[in-house]
Amino acid sequence: MTDAILTMDPAKVTETPATQLLRRYYYERSLRIRLFLAQLPITLTLASAAILIGFLKPSLFGDTRLIMALGLSVALLAAAVAAPWEKMPPASYLIMPYLDFVVVALFRQSSDTLLSAGAMLVLFPVFWLCASGFAPKTAVFSSTLASLVVVWIPLFDAPGPVTAEQLVRPLLFPFMMLAFSIAMVVLTTSMDRHRDALIAQDRQRVKDLTESQQRERLLGTIVDTVGVGVVVVDADGNDCLMNSTAEAIHALGVPEHITAPEEHELLVFAADKGPLAAGSRPVRRAILGESFTNYQVWIGAGDQARTLSTTARTIRGDDGISDGAVIAFHDVTDMVNALSAKDDFVANVSHEFRTPLSAINSYVAMARETPGLQPQEVVSYLDIAERNTARLNSLVSDLLATTTTMSVLPAPTLFTTLIADSLGSAAPAAARNEVVLEQDCQKPLFAKIDAGRISQVLDNLVSNAVKYSPDGGTVTVRAWASGSDLHCQVADTGLGLSAAEQAGVFQKFFRAGSAVERGIPGIGLGLMISKTIIDNHGGTLTLQSEQGKGTTMSFVIPGCVLNSFPTSSGTESRQP
């Protein structure tokens, strides 16, 4: 056995059925077991020969050379297992085949009268030495010399002088061993080179496989990182790759009653939310070889529905035939909603601006063109124009408040007066909607707040409560102090909001669905501005609502309540 074979890693060698057997029963064993298996053939051969001698000529056991040969062979077999070969130099075990030459020489001398082919046992140590891979030239020389010694020793052990004819007669056997050892060295060298080439190839394959796995993991990480769903299908429409975003999007389109739906069973709709034919669905179009960009569809139903912008490219082989396609799904729901909100905003602002401007133009025109008007009538017309101008200015102020930093200037304020003013301003609109305005406030209630800003908050909350009670009802404003914290609630019994609508009430340009359906005016900035004002006071603005039963808006401003309020005379008015 070569030393490389004794120590090599079999997992790195390309396996055939024969090498699988060698690996299982030889390579995977320890060095001691492998040396034991290498020594075992010559020992078993000698044991068989000893049995044959016992039957044919037991008297040969009286020859001490036979006993020494058998004993040394058994000792070498035991040494193969018992000796600490792992702690010795790598080639130290080659002492065993050299000692096997001694065993063969002793056995041949003692059994030559019965077994004339005893010299053939030299093949075992010759094979071992020449296949070892260590010092091949020395192995060839040693094998040839040992073979020569084995056949010459009996000549020198016989009585009488040794003639040249006697020395030449057995030379054929050493020459055979020389040829055999050279052939073994050449064969072993060729096998070693072939094995090294296989190991190098396998190492390269392992390296390529590792790099491929690393690239696959990198690609998978990149694909899962991007916020776009990516699906790769083969020519038959089978999924080859689907990232986590695509899986989440796919889950939205799965009907409740189907566990593993086909492509045509998914909840996919056209851009107008109408039915979408199976052949017009993005994946099906891609499988049929179409390439497209920004093809919009809806997926899912109800509140979970999302708008998708899809893009597809065909994968083509060298022959130009489609091998599949890559489809990208980009969730553009927020963008579509934003565009819709922008359109609604422009329409609402245009409507809100047009009404006061029309009134201003009409009354100003009347003031200028109507002959013989009394001064009092002119004043009345101009008052109407002034109120509408104020309304227009208020709308502009709201728009500016969404784009600029809002500051607050707290000062001692009688909060109940602000509530009364707000309810007074809302009285005409409340009368038109048949809404009853009520207040339940602790009096007097002093607080250090920005009166102008808090008045704006109260106006927004009360006007919203009145507007969202188009069928009549009650709007109640409550205010009280809890320690130094100011609490205020504005409750109505109007339309209320759904759970989905409540999530967006403090966003810019938010408009409830019921408000849009009933044509309730507004541009969706009041609550956002109100929350900003309360936040800048260090407080919180919250909402509780139930659709069909009404809404309660509450705000708390901490640490602003005053125990007394300074008057113009220098005295202080105290809280009761």
Report on this model:
The protein has 576 residues and is α+β, with helices and mostly antiparallel strands. The chain contains 18 helices and 16 strands. The chain has helices at residues 3-7, 17-27, 31-56, 64-82, 95-111, 123-130, 136-157, 164-168, 172-225, 244-252, 282-287, 333-369, 375-401, 415-432, 451-467, 499-502, 513-518, 526-536, and strands spanning 229-234, 239-242, 268-269, 292-299, 306-316, 322-331, 411-414, 435-441, 446-449, 473-482, 485-492, 540-546, 550-557, 561-562, 564-566, 572-574. The strands form four sheets. It has a six-stranded antiparallel sheet with strand order 2-1-6-5-4-3. It has a five-stranded mixed sheet with strand order 8-10-11-13-12. A hairpin with a 6-residue loop joins strand 4 and strand 5 (306-316). Helix 5 (95-111) packs parallel to helix 7. The longest helix has 54 residues, at 172-225. The chain is rod-shaped, with a radius of gyration of 51 Å.
